Amino acid sequence: MDVISLTIDSKKRISLTKLLPPGNIRSVRAYRDGNRIVLEPMMEVPVEEAWLFENRDSFKKVLTGLSQKGSVKRGSFAKYAK
């Protein structure tokens, strides 16, 4: 885990931009865990892709397919090459 020292400004704000992962972060989910404040970066999902996250069976199938990437033997396609 990388530890970065952050300074609080005169209005008691902290800039977290150094800690954000790459990507199109739109919001942050914040909650307390004991005496800690936990911030989770959130990304928006387009409406046309939301069904996949709502349909657990389809989501599991996609994850299974992605985990098989490169492990499935498809044979030679040399006979189709010109």
Could you write a compact summary of the structure shown?
With 82 residues, the chain is α+β, with helices and mostly antiparallel strands. The protein has a domain at 17-67. The protein has helices spanning 47-54, 56-67; strands spanning 27-33, 36-42.
| Mean pLDDT across all amino acids | 85
Note the gap between the termini. Answer: 52 Å
Task: Output the radius of gyration.
Answer: 22 Å
- The total strand number stands at 2
Indicate the percent of residues in helices: 10-25%
Major sheet summary line = 2 strands, antiparallel
What proportion strand? Answer: 15-25%
Provide the succession of SSEs: EEHH
Tally of contiguous helical segments: 2
Low-confidence region ranges: none
Arrangement of strands in the largest sheet:
1-2
Structural class: alpha+beta
Shape field: elongated
Annotation keywords:
two-stranded antiparallel sheet; elongated; alpha+beta; 24% helix; 82 residues
